[in-house]
């Protein structure tokens, strides 16, 4: 694995190649999941995808653990970056990646509050640096026909999806006895006014901080989801490696 525990000459061997930057979040995930859930998940998906394409073929950068989590304002345990700060962090990392001679950058997140920022950043980085940048929100990748959970259509935060994947990867961090369903009104809110989808707050629809139904989450479902989306992420990474070659 070419990361930060390897040497500069190892990175130099990747000249003209691709770097991967995972971006997490630190935010309340109800009473049953850890606040770093999105950072833990993105690290696991990215590690698996990098292993799949070949650990010596990309530069895996350290994760930006924090993300933009403004939608959880008012809930204890949330630490949010502004869009300006997150954009600036990504920008400065990308300038350094380009200065090290790499040509491609994959921005990966598992947090739904980040993709808007990453999308704007990726276009600006191409304009400024000539980098080929791709942005991936892992939970949006295809689930290969996996049957959705009981919260299909409102599995937004701490619901069936995240809880199942966490049960598959880190069961010791999940308190299933505290898993509760909440926030079903989220679907109505979004359906009623799709133009304001970017401005909802969790507290608009949920008292617990959960938007979803995690009560029937399972490690088996989570393993299948992890396998499908890790493979999809690896395919995107392989395509990016090919695009800059
Ligand atoms: Zn999450």
Tell me what you see in this structure:
This protein is of the alpha/beta class and 245 residues long. The chain has one domain: Creatininase (Rossmann fold). The chain is built from seven helices and four strands, in the order αβαβαβαβααα. Strands 2-1-3-4 form a four-stranded parallel sheet, sandwiched between helices. Helix 2 packs across helix 7, helix 3 packs parallel to helix 4 and helix 5 packs across helix 7. The longest helix is centred in the C-terminal third of the chain and has 26 residues. The two termini are 20 Å apart. The model has no long low-confidence stretch (mean pLDDT 95). Bound molecules: zinc ion (ZN). The site of zinc ion has 6 residues, from helix 2.
